[in-house]
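Lab notebook, bench 4. Still working through the backlog of constructs that have no structural model yet. Next entry is a single chain of 135 residues. Request: give me the structure tokens for it.
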Amino acid sequence: MTTYTVTARRWAHGWELHIENVGVTQARSLSSAESMAREYISLALDLDDETSFDIDIVPQLDAALTQRVRTARDEVKAAAQKQREAAAKQREAAEELRDTGLTGREIAVVLDISPQRVSQLLGGSTAEPSAATGG
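Model written out:
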């Protein structure tokens, strides 16, 4: 999928949107910049689907603030990736614990999470042995 970088420059009436290799348009607010850029790109390039491409809005700020914002965004993305990786490892551990015969409640104690979280990790397949089956 094509990604268009849109440099947003503040001015008296809102934001100028400089769309790389396409052109320039305007938006009254930064929150409306993406929809305005999508509409402009679709019209300029005669595209039928405004969702057939990605938009990367880059507000133009002073250099130091831009770097802090970029760092913060990168760290949030990295943290989200780490969280996905940790959840996958937790799921694998829960599955291995289940395969050794532990109940969902026991897995919860071992992993220090709630029984509900164990159920989520295992896709609801943590049925406890019932009294009727001698469990």
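Notes after review: The longest strand covers residues 3-11. Strands lie at 3-11, 14-19, 23-27, 54-59. Flag for follow-up if needed.
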